[in-house]
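FW: tagging you since you asked about this chain on Friday. Here's the raw sequence from the shared folder, copied in full. Didn't touch anything.
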Amino acid sequence: MSDPVAAGPAHAYGVGVKICGLTRVGDAAHAVEAGASHIGAIMAGGPRLLTIERARAVLGPRGQNQQRVVVFGDQQLADIIVTVHALDLDITQLHGACTPTSIEAIRRETGCEVWPVLRVAGTTLPADAAALAAAAGAVVLDAHVVGQLGGTGVALDWSGLHDAVQALRASVSGVRVILAGGLRPTNVIKAIQLLSPDVVDVSSGVESETGVKDPKLVEQFVAAVRSAAGMQRGLW
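HL: got it, structure written out here
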C-alpha cells in the first residue's frame, strides 16, 4: 500500500468514506486498512445480499477507526431492530420505505444512527426529504432507478442538485449528507467539490467484479477523497 493511503482514516480529513456491498472478509479488512471510515454490508437484496451470519463474519469485530453499517430494504421494523442488535451495528441504512416514526423507533430501540435513503431523480429531492432529515439527522442521496433499491452505479446530477442540497441544509440544521450513486476514483473529487458531502458511499465503483473489491481502486478512491477534502480545507 502506498504511503498516502496509509496516512490514516479518511474521516480525519473531513469527508468520510463508506465502502459498501462488502461480501468478503479480506475486502472489509483492506477497506479499513486503506482508511475507510465506514464499512457496509447489504441485506436489502441484490447480488451482494448477505445473511446475518455472513454479515457478522464480513464486518468482523468492532474496531476503533470505522463504523459498521448494514443496508436494509423492506424488512419489518422488528426484524431490523433484531439485526442491529445481532450485528452490533453503528448505523442502519434504510433503502426501503421509512417514516420519521420508524426512524425514531429504530434509534430508540437500538441507540443506532439511522440513515434514510432519498432516491433522487433529476435535480429535486423527494417531498419528505426535510422530514426524514430532521428525524434522522442524516440522509443518503442515491439515484432513483426503477426496480432497484440501490447499488446501480448510476451517478446523480451533482451540479443540478447543489441548490436543493443547500436548501435542505438550511432547513435542517446540522444534517449530515451521505452521497452515493455512481461514485468512483475518477469522479469523486468533482462530486465532493459540488455537494460537500459528509460521507461518500461507494460499492460498484471500486469493484473488479460484482461483490469483489479491487484493492487498488479502493486505495485510489480513499486517496482521491483525501485530496478533495484537503483542497476544501486549504491544506494544499
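FW: The radius of gyration is 16 Å.
HL: agreed, and The first strand starts at residue 16 and ends at 19.
FW: great, closing this out.
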